[in-house]
Write a structure and sequence with these properties.
Elements (H helix, E strand, L loop, with lengths): L9 H41 L6 E2 L11 E10 L5 E5 L3 E5 L4 E9 L5 E10 L7 E6 L5 E3 L4 E10 L14 E10 H11 L3
Parallel strand pairs: 1-7, 2-10
Antiparallel strand pairs: 2-4, 3-5, 5-9, 6-8, 6-10, 7-9
Length: 198
């Protein structure tokens, strides 16, 4: 009887272990690559759901409840250094009740002799107010294109959720600042990745 037939081949066993290890390492690498591609969109979803980083919410309609508690909404506007627009709020602040419709507008003017397109990133401060600030209509949802020297008024329809009144962490919030920064369309995706807020 040949004893070698019952004895495992150490070389074959090592080859099997190396193959299993290689598959595990390959699986981890593929998982990490997948997570790196998913990180920005997942972070954006997280911010939208929680209001993290001052990310505002979107809504289709106003709430049914309007409370007596008021909050002052301030409006801020900025542009990327490469954005050839004059961009500013048409009013600096308004006071609204929680649950009440707020309406404001921003103006934008193309300073160039050619059509230009841009997108706006936005947030609110204090950052903890993001989950209570709901936008119903906003120019920031779509890319905006202005003809040479064209000037437009861009409305924003919003409300502050009455649920804010029940949050003890929000008792000190009397003013919320809504900020927009316009970027050229070709820079927008990079800016969005850096912010992770939309």
């Amino acid at each position: 009887m040949d004893k070698n037939k019952n004895t495992p081949d150490p070389h074959a066993e090592m080859t099997r272990k190396n193959a299993r290890l290689g598959l595990c390492v390959l699986g981890v690498v593929i998982l990490m690559i997948g997570l790196s591609f998913a990180a920005v969109p997942l972070y954006g979803v997280f911010c939208r759901v929680t209001g993290f980083g001052g990310t505002t919410q979107t809504a289709n309609a106003l709430p049914e409840t309007i409370l007596e508690r008021t909050v002052t909404i301030q409006f801020n506007a900025d542009t990327s250094p490469n954005m050839p627009w004059v961009f500013e709020p048409e009013q600096r602040k308004i006071e609204i009740k929680l649950g009440q419709q707020g309406l404001t507008a921003y103006s934008a003017r193309n300073k160039t002799n050619r059509p230009t397109s841009g997108n706006a990133l936005y947030n609110v401060t204090p950052l903890k107010a993001g989950k209570y600030f709901h936008k119903i209509q906003c120019f920031c949802f779509d890319e905006q294109t202005l003809k040479p020297h064209e000037e437009v008024s861009m409305p924003v329809l919003f409300y502050v959720d009455p649920a804010m009144d029940k949050d003890p962490n929000m008792e000190d919030v009397h003013t919320i600042t809504l900020s927009y920064t316009f970027y050229p369309a070709e820079e927008y995706e990079r800016a969005l990745e850096k912010s992770g807020t939309q």
